[in-house]
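Quick one from the shared queue. A colleague (R.T.) flagged Coproporphyrinogen-III oxidase as missing a structural entry in our internal table.

Convert sequence to structure tokens.
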Amino acid sequence: MPAPIHSAQSAPGNPLAAAVWDADRLHRYARSGPRYTSYPTALSFDPSFTADDFSAALQRSNQTQRPLSLYVHIPFCRNVCFYCACNKIATKNTALAASYLAGLDKEMALTAQNLDTRRPVEQLHWGGGTPTFLTLDQMSELVDKLDAHFGLSDDPERDYAIEIDPREADVLTLRHLQSLGFNRLSLGVQDLDPQVQQAINRPQPRALTETLMDEAHRLGFRSLNLDLIYGLPRQTADSFAQTLRQIIELNPARLSVFNYAHLPKRFPPQRRILDAELPSRDEKLAMLRTTIEMLTAAGYVHIGMDHFARPDDSLAIAQRRGTLQRNFQGYSSHAQCDLIGLGVSAISRLDDSYAQNHSQLGHYQAAIDQGQLATLRGIRLCRDDLIRRDAIERLMCDMQLDLSTLSEHWQIDARGYFQSTLSALAQAQHDGLIDIREHRLEVTPIGRLLIRHLAMAFDARLPSEASHHYSNIV
């Protein structure tokens, strides 16, 4: 396992740790808002955008010759975690995967008909659900199909990642994934406290995660990410700090520390969680404070929102270079890729369009069986959408925005174009969330925690009642 990291961020004068803990200010701004994995957000996707529109968008994308990023959604889970809000199918019937893989093969063929497949596949991500629901042979079959239709890469700089449930993987699984070309792993942990694990129906001893991480390091996987969640039932600031101490000892390259959104009306498994066992708003804020203080003291860079990375990880490097991007998997180090989503509920992002597949497995398979792309809805972006997407993405990735660069790129007067936005940010500037000077916007340390709120000022499509649609910012 790599040696522990140290950086200037661990110094006592770290401005983030010193400035961020104004609880009243955080609570005042902690309303609901989008995560901006896309702009416009999925709420703006329209059913009038059809499979034919998506085909046309794929064909237009060939003109740019941008590299490809492939996302494959594997919706199956053997067990339901009560907190989960993902599109999933709980089953122990592994035979279901065979027909699903056949559908994926057909979808790949339909998609590839519209693509210049000489475009390199720089990124590959398998998510879910639980991708390790598949057998080793099924994983091989899926990689073979992806390679046959799109041509996978052996470039050492490729970013081929898969989400792993440590309860359903072992050393043989990791060796097989490495042989298939994966070089990055994301392991779901959520919390190491047995009482919390019991409350969310996810028993997972530390030894499972640690064994897999040790083997992944020995095999030479380039980057390991661990997912944690704060705000779960039975959690306290002290118990979560104990989990963080153990995680820091494991020393992953990246960490995603998500804020649990309790929305039982939308996600039925969450109804198994007792409201009385959920931490209070103040306790959750204490967990967030503990997270940032402990991780930055351990040398991690706070990339933004819920992402942390070691300074030598590709995410931190991309942020320093100004090439970080956001997509439906969060922050990404591979900018300027066209993202092709495959499988039920998957979303594609092309240069000027988004398209989302059917979220119901039966509808998805019916469309594919009829020889059609499984597009449920989407949107083609207008020029204003493209300009605002650029501004939001740069603000969320760089924690700053240069209006002069925006003006030059889009041939506009950006300060005039975003006059109403700058007016809307006046209170946030007064409250110390952002510093606006002439043509430059700089997010402050406390503003990093509320970056979703700052981005909302640029959103021309935000619903009037955002709280009905989105999770809380912190």
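The two ends are 32 Å apart (CA to CA).
The longest strand covers residues 121-128.
Added to the table.
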